[in-house]
Amino acid sequence: MAGLVMFGLLRRRYDISHRLKTSNSDLPVQTCLRLLVMCVVQTSLWVCVIAFSLWDASAQGLLPWKGVHIDWSYIGQYTVVSLPPGSLQRKLFCWWAVPASSLVTFGSLSFGGECKSEYIRLFGWVCKVMSKERTQEAIMLRTMSVSKRCVFSLLHIGHLTEAAE
């Protein structure tokens, strides 16, 4: 189904880009296409994970429906030793699909041109603020006498060790 949707979107990509340009949308065409590609990758990833999970759940046979709803509030805990061989690796593969999906989303949204310019602007602002604080501290230290500098540095070191604890 996702493949059919993507095929239709690719066939009408000119129409989509024209509508985005004429509707004064805040969503640039490149971002829209990047989101479409991310949707295809996420859909493919999750179709594979769900198919694998269904195969793994039914590999040992399906349980009878007779006692499915009995003691439904019981939360079972299983030790690693009690799992069949290879079952732990299959379960861990399915569990780690969520962080992998998060990384795919982060990668597709964070490396666009508009994001890079925002990162550069943020990095410049942080550097400016940090250099301003260091400059003010250096000016304050130059105006102090030697004994006050020693007291200030001891207080500063004591403040840093308290913050570390």
Structural account:
The chain is mainly alpha-helical. The protein has two domains: 1-59 and 82-111, no CATH class; 113-165. Helix content is 75%, strand content 0%. It is built from seven helices and no strands. Helix 3 (29-58) runs antiparallel to helix 4 (87-95) and helix 3 (29-58) packs antiparallel against helix 5 (97-110). The radius of gyration is 29 Å and the shape is flat. The model is unreliable at 158-165 (pLDDT under 50). One of its GO terms (molecular function) is mating-type factor pheromone receptor activity. It holds the Pfam family STE3.
Core attributes:
165 residues; mainly alpha; 2 domains; 0% strand; disordered C terminus; GPCR_STE3; mating-type factor pheromone receptor activity
Compile the SSE list and pairings.
Elements: H1 2-11, H2 13-22, H3 29-58, H4 87-95, H5 97-110, H6 113-143, H7 146-164
Helix pairs in contact: 3-4, 3-5
Amount of beta strand: under 5%
> How many individual β-strands?
0
Largest sheet: none
Helical coverage, percent range:
over 70%
Radius of gyration, CA atoms, in whole angstroms: 29 Å
Mean residue pLDDT: 74
Report the end-to-end length measured between terminal Cα atoms: 55 Å
Helix count equals 7
Low-confidence stretches: 158-165
Tell me the number of structural domains. 2
Helix/strand-derived class?
A: mainly alpha
The run of helices and strands is HHHHHHH
User: How would the global form be characterised?
Assistant: flat
GO molecular function, one term: mating-type factor pheromone receptor activity
GO cellular component, one term: membrane
InterPro entries: GPCR_STE3
Pfam families: STE3 (PF02076)
